[in-house]
Amino acid sequence: MRLPRLVSGILIKRYKRFMADVKLEDGSFVTAHCPNSGSMKGCADPGSRVCLSLSTNTKRKLLYTWELVESNDGWVGINTGLSNYLVREAIESAVVKELQGFPVIRPEVPYGSNSRIDLLLESEAGLCYVEVKNVTLADGRHALFPDAVTTRGQKHLHELMQVVRAGHRGVIFFAVQRGDVESVSPADHIDPEYGRLLRLACENGVEPLAYQGEIGTEEIRLVRRLPVIL
Asked: For residue 39, what are the domain limits?
């Protein structure tokens, strides 16, 4: 996935979840939209180098959007709005071998209890429901999800179990937007209920998949599968 032209700067602070003050390289200060509702633990430290995109939509209140943050000498993609596109692109380009053979892919299809599945894959053989989660938190070489308690994520696991019981495939897909990790696990110390439900879902037929991205200032793409360690 190609990124728009980015400008770099230094993070001053993130606040109110969706706002971030940044000092650009030219010395000016801007307030950017933060497209990530999580805690961004380890990815929102003041003084971090960040990259922002600039919208051409002059009606937007905040013209800049925070896209990347530097961590461990590499970039981390913090824009959760890109995750579904990255996963779809990886499926369509046959990077994700486990999800081939579906000629139709539909985004944001209603299902469950007032939810929308991120990607619904369709073929004559059946349906595959894919719930996508963006992963930015790391502990050493291990990526962790979630980075904050997520009742919404817990609900999604219940709903994936329901679609599996109905005879369809259900996939929880972790899109890891950082290149310095080697596996993905539930962050039990942050949300133990999510970890419990993830293990229960996998025991009941929900398929865990994790793919790691190559993150650059011009392009982000998912390139390799990582083990999900439960």
From this structure: 6-75
